[in-house]
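Contributing new records

If you add data, match the layout below exactly. Sequence lines come first and carry their own label; structure lines follow with theirs. Keep one chain per record. Anything else will be rejected by the validation script.
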Amino acid sequence: PVFAQEQVAQGVQALAQQWAVEAVQKSQRAEPTPLRMDVTVGALDARVRLAACGNMEAYVPPGARLWGRSRVGVRCVDGISRWNVTLPVTVRALGEAWVVKTQLAAGTAVTESDVTRGEVDWAEEQGAILTDRAAWLGQTASRALTTGQALRQGMLRPAQVFQAGATVKIVAQGPGFQISSEAQALSAGVVGQQARVKMDNGRVTSGTVLDVRTVKIDL
C-alpha cells in the first residue's frame, strides 16, 4: 500500500537523520576546534519501493564521510526483503576562520589588512581551514580569492622573495659564533625553502631562505 510505503520511507529518513546527528556530534567531541554542527538528511528517492522491516541500521557508505555533501546508507537487517538504500546528507560545520576581506588577484601577497575573522561553513569546500596566522601571513594567493572566502590549504603558496642571480646576504651559524657575507643566488628564493647560492670564493652551497635577501647556512 502507498500509505505503508510512505511510513517505511519516513522511518528510513528519521533513522538516518538521528544516526547522522549522533555520529557527527561524537566525532566533533574529539576535535580541538569547537564547531556548530548542522546535519540535514534528504528524503529517499520517491521511486524506491521498500518492504516493511523489523530492524534497520544506518551506516556511512565506503568512500563517504559525514562532512559537506555526502550520503548515509540504511539497510534492512531483519525483514522479508533485505534492502539497502542511500540518502543525501548535508553536514555544515559553522565556526570562525580567517576570511578574505577584499578580492585578491593570483600572486598577491596576503597581509593583515586583507583578512578578517568571520563565521563560515568549514565543510563547504575541500581543503582544510588555515587556523594558524603564520600559515597565511606573507604567503601569496595561488589563485584569485573572493571576498568572504575562508583561507584554506591549497589557496596560498610561499612568497618568492628573490630571483636567481640576485645578490643575497649569507648568515652562517656554528657553535658559539655567527658570520655573514654576500653571495649570488643560483636559484629563486622562497621563504622557508632551500636555495642554492655561490659564495665569493666560488663554493656552491644551499641554505634556508629567511627573508627578502637573507639565506641561512648551517655549518
